[in-house]
Amino acid sequence: MGFPRNPDTDIHARQVIMGKDQRVLFHSTIFGPIHSRRLGTSLGINLSPNDGKVCSFDCLYCEAGFNAQGAGTTGLPPREKVRKDLREKLQKMKESGENLDVITFSGNGEPTMHPDFPGILDDVIALRDEFFPEAKVSVLTNSTRIFTPAIAEALKKADNNILKLDSAIEETMQLVDRPNSPSFTVERVIDSLKQFSGSGIIQTMILRGEHNGKRIDNTTPKEIDALIKAYKEIKPKEIMIYSLDRSTPEEKLIKVEKDELEEIAKRIERETGIEVRV
Predict the structure, then answer these.
(1) How do 207-211 and 214-217 pair as beta strands?
(2) Are residues 138 and 103 in contact, defined by beta-carbon separation less than 8 angstroms?
(3) What pLDDT, on the 0 to 100 scale, is given for residue 9?
(4) pLDDT-derived band at 8, boundaries 50, 70, 90
(5) Residue 203 and residue 242: Cα distance in Å, rounded?
(6) For the segment 183-239, what is each residue's pLDDT rounded down to a tens digit?
(7) CB neighbourhood size of 205 (10 A)
């Protein structure tokens, strides 16, 4: 994910573009509902174009493909369209007696890059309260926009504010996440993540592999030590770790299996006192 994608999304909610640049794109503003292992029955919101990608990361593992594909032709969905489409979908679900556990901002890029993100989040919360007041609102973000006060304050309104930190070592983060801005550094993001102490959820992709001849492995003792130190400083309410689920644009990446993830989770939980979900 050049952005924090939800690895649990249903393939039927997405458009698969085959060929040399294989990628998977959500082709609508509102998609689902789908079943998420982490979040339950989830209705998705895509604030990026439905035929391209807009992201402040260019992650090696993003199943939407690399940013070089471009932003497509459809543009960002206007706030009014998001509100209208979501109202129609929630009303239909309510009338048909469907269940809903969570509304999740995900999609073909970083949702907080939408210029109307704070207002759209307010609209989503209001519609949730109207139709499914027990449902949660989740935002999957790569943490690149949390330095902007309006975005940070908006994220604090979400029930599940899921913030990315793939590595607490600068070289690894730059190699795996490839942030667009040279001002985005591990030190800066960890310091800013502290503002979500007790409320934010930190999400970390665990993987191995190689890119351009450089080895990637954030399962090493050095990497896990650095992550544990960062988690202790940030003090999130919860940590999520996961690994690859589908094909990635960098083909030399390797999935870390669940048993190893669970061992890593046990160590993190033991040393931080924070709940870790795999």
Answers:
(1) antiparallel
(2) yes
(3) 42
(4) very low
(5) 8
(6) 999 999 999 999 999 999 999 999 999 999 999 999 999 999 999 999 999 999 999
(7) 25
Instruction: Give dist(CA 177, CA 193) in Å, integer.
Output: 17
Q: How far apart are CA 233 and CA 253, in angstroms?
A: 29
Structure tokens at 161: 């504010």
Tell me the three-class secondary structure of the chain, residue by residue.
CCCCCCCCCCHHHEEEECCCCCEEEECCCEEEEEEECCCEEEEEEECCCCCCCECCCCCCCCCCCCHHHCCCCCCCCCHHHHHHHHHHHHHHHHHCCCCCCEEEEECCECHHHCCCHHHHHHHHHHHHHHHCCCCEEEEEECCCCCCCHHHHHHHCCCCEEEEECCCCCHHHHHHHHCCCCCCCCHHHHHHHHHHHCCCEEEEEECEEEEECCEEEECCCHHHHHHHHHHHHHHCCCEEEEECCCCCCCCCCEEECCHHHHHHHHHHHHHHHCCCEEC
pLDDT > 60? residue 14: no
80-136 tens-digit pLDDT: 999 999 999 999 999 999 999 999 999 999 999 999 999 999 999 999 999 999 999
